[in-house]
Amino acid sequence: PLLMMAIRGMDYVIHRRILDEETVDEIGAKFESNIPLSEKVKRALRCSVPRLKKCLLQRFPLIKWLPHYPIRETAIGDLISGINGGIMQIPLSIAYAMIAAVPPVFGLYAAFYPMLVYFIFGTSHHLIIGGYTVLALMMRGLGDRLAPDSDFMIWDNETNSSVVDTVSQDAKRVQVVVAVTLLSGLFQILLGLVQFGVMVTYLSEPLVRGYTTGATFHIFMSQFGNIFGVTYVRHNGPLMLPKNFIEFLFVLHVTHIPTLVVFVVAMVGLVVAKRVSEFLSKKLPVPVPVELLAVIISTLVSWKLNLNESYKIAVVGNIPSGLQPPSLPPTSLIGEVIGDAFAMAVVGYGMAISLGQVFALKHGYKVDSNQELIALGLSNAVGGLFQSIAISGSIPRSLVNESTGGKSQVLAGAVSAIVILIALFSIGSLLSDLPKAVLAAIIFVNVTGTLKQFHDIPALWKTSKVDMFIWLATFIFILLLNPDLGLPAAIGFSMLTVIFRTQRPKYSLLGQVQGTDIYRPFENYSQAVPGIVIFRSSATLYFANADMYKNALSKKSGLDVHKILATKKKQEAKRQKLQKENAKRTNGEGKEEGGSEHVGFIIFLIIIHSEPPVFSSFCVAFCVLFQIYRDYGKIGIEVLLAGCQTGVMDQLKIGGYFSDKVTKSCVFSTIHDAVLYCQPVRRTAEVILWNFVCTQFKK
């Protein structure tokens, strides 16, 4: 700290001449670095042993870290973590399957096949993949749309009424879920191969948190039937949530009390057990598998008291043992689920990469976003072939993996998969008496934590009102339009806020901080450059705000160019008329007020070099700059540019901005160079500096 204070207190002096871009190019010996497209293609297709090795290590991370796996240091922790994670995954996987409205065994498949694939191709050391509540909810909505109850109604002679053929409906729903899982995996693989891992940047944190909060209410609604022991008409499409809730209220009076009692007892027991587990977490080497204990205890009680037959409490039923052979879903379903598959691919990847990056930042390693996209896609694709539901990053499993000492997905993931495999072959008949109300309680306990995200609203109100509106809009979209349609609507609204921000930039006048080459807004800093006005806009210059930008420039500078030009034309016409009347009065009569003044005008332009502007957008910006140079030049104001990056200079050159009159000598390296250039006595009168700040030209 003392050294930093000493360094900050040091003065420094730099002696150099004023530099424009032409001089900088000469001093720096600039050369053209543009590579022809043909050469880029050749380099991309060129194959060599080092490149092949790099490609293999990138696509198969297992090859890189497995030979260096520290067995003595991390094997025990990974083993313990894997066993606990696998035990914890059993009840959660069954619960995810119930949310997706498919038989429980397909949730267990999601905890087995994808994990084996991910541990070969994944780059996160702590991320454990598995079922995800939002994805399960999206699959349920898709199943309700493509396999509704109305398509499977049969006549029951015992009750003399129509009932749902659940066997046929479950078979259809499984086909739908498998199809959307496989297709979402293929989408993720394709996006990963084209290096589209950056798409997660469009899923901002307020959007994701608003999305998960809204999806929580859909999850609650999906379990009301299992909680209250009632059946009601289910609706699909927009406004599904309020419609289903109204239908539920109509049958609330026939609540099955024994089922509700089981749910309440299980809910209270889980909450108390989790609080005790959290209290003892520092004293115990591994966390208590609360959910598994709830499943075991409730299954034993249900079996002993015969709850299904004696009290008509719905139970899971028999779970098939073993594994399913690989199979492809019907091709007729592909067209019907393609949109949902893409949405699930984006949501699943967004959750997984966000969770993986949190662990990577905490433990000091890097996660390859594109490789994660491919790994997740392969996990979903292989899982879909083996009848698995869609997967993403599993928050509870990943936290358990980290808290119990898991350092790598080698043993943690593999051991978890082995535990699930044992469960698939052994517990099928043992869990047949598990009450569905208990699974509903497990779901409620695990998702109610997302309701705490409502605290984001007052926090965002203080920090960023735009982000708060994104959160609220996403939440409302999910409630009213459902998770599948709500996601694109939320992303679209988020994009609109970006446009809104560029449409509402902050225009300000800058002044020089005394004794420095630093320039700050007048509203915050009182020291200004004498005789110089510096104008700055915080927004990108593109077609939507071009007119607004020119109007703000005119207002801030106090110069109405068009009005001055009109006045100048009238004076010129008057002067010519007077010339004809009296040749002796030709000198000075037509002189415009301020017309002979030479006023300097500097534009400070910045563009991010890594993202070149779209040509159409740059064309608009170029036209605006040219108009400003032309119009202000007509009234005696000289236009200069300052602080432009190389990419901008090249685009200006290509666009034809530079000419015999407009050269690189009109462009300066910094705003201070431009100020110093304007100060010699030969440059008279007032000098206006226009500081045009823009991070990139956008379409």
UniProtKB/TrEMBL annotation:
GO terms under cellular component: membrane
Pfam families tied to this protein: STAS, Sulfate_transp
Record key words, sorted: Membrane, Transmembrane, Transmembrane helix
UniProt-listed InterPro entries: SLC26A/SulP_dom, SLC26A/SulP_fam, STAS_dom, STAS_dom_sf
Positions of transmembrane segments: 94-112, 118-138, 176-203, 248-272, 341-361, 373-391, 411-430, 469-500
Disordered: annotated segments: 571-594
Domain of life: Eukaryota
Signal peptide segment: none
Cellular compartment(s): Membrane
Record's keyword annotation contains Repressor: no
Main subcellular localisation: membrane
Domain STAS residue range list: 522-678
GO annotation (BP), single: transmembrane transport
Keyword presence, Membrane: yes
PANTHER family listed in its UniProt record: SULFATE TRANSPORTER
The protein, known as: Solute carrier family 26 member 6
